[in-house]
Amino acid sequence: MVLLTGGGTGGHLFPALAVAEELRRRGHEVFYLGAQEGLEARLLPKTPLPHALIPAGKLDRSAFRPGEAWRLLQGLGVARAVLKARRPKAVLSTGGYAGFPGAFVAELQGVPVLLHEQNAKLGLAVKLLVPLSRGLALSVPLSLPPRLGAKARVVGYPVREVRYPKEEAKARLGFDPKKPLLLVLGGSQGSLELNEKLPPLLKPLGLPVLHQVGERWVERYRHLEEEAYRIRGFVEAPLAMSAADLLLARAGAGTLAEAAFHRLPALLFPLPQSLDGGAQRANARAYEKAGAARLGDYARLAQQVEAMLQNPEPYREAMGRLSPEGAAGRLADWLEEFL
Prior knowledge:
Keywords: Cell cycle, Cell division, Cell membrane, Cell shape, Cell wall biogenesis/degradation, Glycosyltransferase, Membrane, Peptidoglycan synthesis, Transferase. One of its GO terms (biological process) is peptidoglycan biosynthetic process. The structure is a single chain. The protein is globular, with a radius of gyration of 20 Å. Strand 1, helix 1 and strand 2 form a beta-alpha-beta unit. It contains 16 helices and 13 strands. The chain has helices at about 10-25, 40-45, 65-85, 100-110, 125-130, 145-150, 165-170, 190-200, 220, 235-245, 255-260, 275, 280-290, 300-310, 315-320, 325-335; strands spanning about 1-5, 30-35, 50-55, 90-95, 115, 135-140, 150-155, 180-185, 210, 230, 245-250, 265-270, 295. It has 2 domains: about 1-160 and about 325-335, Glycogen Phosphorylase B (Rossmann fold), CATH 3.40.50.2000; about 165-320, Rossmann fold.
């Protein structure tokens, strides 16, 4: 049996779910350990995966928070009971605060732990877990000290590997198949900054736009909707990215991996370092360095959009070189080495 753990946000949860699906397809028993406070608490009950939700205090780089520390201690105790009952032969942790308790207890018990880092910068949970881990799976190449580099392999970020013909996808979304389509994504929750700043800059361009504002912001921004500027709380990523010609988005690892799978050029607006420790900025720089994306500049947005739409092929080719196709299978292969 393989225990998968990680979550809190979709960036940590969705790759673990993709690997769980691959392992189940191969006939392995899997169990998911998530956090009571994470996105998985809402999504896991809708899946066939056996799972448990435990307390998991949020690890904070900048301050000691007694309440979170207490929840972390509680989570370690519950995780110990879960591992005793389930007796996994291997553990995959995709990080985040939800991915720490189960993986840490497993390491102390000598159970092989494989870590998956989604970003172009190691997260705090992964940094704490990696000394005792058996392996470190990376979504993109990272510069690591030799002791960590010896454990690391680049496997990519597991995504839903579904594509649609571009014209068909545009038609299904109600857009003219012959016109370029801009896709605005602010992550699974939406981005207040992108919701405020992009519409007044994009509307004068006269191009079709599909803007995911986030479910919580739909009514607030409904007044922006026009025939060519569609507002949605949530979009199906495979369909939307198949249809789009240019992505304007934050720089979350999952969004970028999906864009790479769909060969979709991107203008990126990463979160400030104070909000995520610099993970999104590191992601954006990695994709920009690879020639797959550019950092967005609100002051020059019209020129950036025009330039990328006029010459998309270099970006598409670079995105293709970063595509995570087959990542779930590569992670499953690695886990099978421990079984």
